[in-house]
Amino acid sequence: MIMKEISLHLLDIVQNSLSAGANLIEVSVEINTDADLLTVGVADNGSGMDEQTCLRVTNPFYTSRDTRKVGLGIPFFKEGAEGCGGDFFLSSAPGEGTKIGASYRLSHIDRPPLGDMAQTMLTLCVCNEDVGFVLRYARDDKEFMFDTREIRLALGDGIPFRTPEVMEWLKGYLSEGIEEVNGGMDV
């Protein structure tokens, strides 16, 4: 089953980046209303994949995991985008990391909603404090940037993101930044 929200696909893709040993993961969301396009992506500095693995990861019967015999995350991500008039892209090289993403027609009747990107990013940050996360969220001519490395510098090493006050601030900061870019419109 294709996930009900695009943000859940991104969460799944980021989990692949973490499994590949990435310590810097960039998540992007770009909404271009003139082009009727929503583009999302994840870029990491993990171990990367060779050309043959890149060709196989879109096959649901391929997985590098030992816990199950199928890998549905990337194939469903690809299928969902292409089924909504969009595209899928993947580039990777061993030792150089991976870039993966998809575009969707904004107006396509079957396009899933983007979902709660603020909560998705908060979950990633709180559960993976030793990883740097960057979010670039853009809509037409507006942009919001979020970088945990900058926040870590401001907080210092002694205060974890999972501290209730920090979590509350992070959630508010992410939500306000995304809402300001969206201008009150849903995606």
Question: What does this molecule look like?
Answer:
The protein has 187 residues and is of the alpha+beta class. The protein has a single domain (6-181), classed as Histidine kinase-like ATPase, C-terminal domain (Heat Shock Protein 90, 2-Layer Sandwich), CATH 3.30.565.10. The protein has helices at 6-19, 51-56, 73-82, 117-127, 148-155, 164-182; strands spanning 24-32, 37-44, 88-93, 97-105, 132-139, 142-147. Strand 5 (132-139) and strand 6 form a beta hairpin. Residues 65-71 have low confidence and may be disordered.
CATH domain fold name: Heat Shock Protein 90
Regarding quaternary structure, what we see is: single chain
| H and E string | HEEHHEEHEEHH
Structural class: alpha+beta
The largest sheet has its strands arranged as 3-4-2-1-5-6
* CATH architectural arrangement: 2-Layer Sandwich
- The best one-word shape is globular
Query: Which percent range describes the beta-strand content?
Result: 15-25%
CATH class: Alpha Beta
The radius of gyration computed from the alpha-carbon positions, rounded to a whole number of angstroms, is 17 Å
Amino- and carboxy-terminal Cα gap: 21 Å
Question: Which structural traits does this protein have?
Answer:
alpha+beta, 6 strands, Heat Shock Protein 90, 6 helices, 187 residues, 6-stranded mixed β-sheet
Sequence-ordered SSE layout with sheet pairings:
Layout: H1 6-19, E1 24-32, E2 37-44, H2 51-56, H3 73-82, E3 88-93, E4 97-105, H4 117-127, E5 132-139, E6 142-147, H5 148-155, H6 164-182
Parallel strand pairs: 1-5
Antiparallel strand pairs: 1-2, 2-4, 3-4, 5-6
Helix pairs in contact: 1-3, 1-4, 4-6
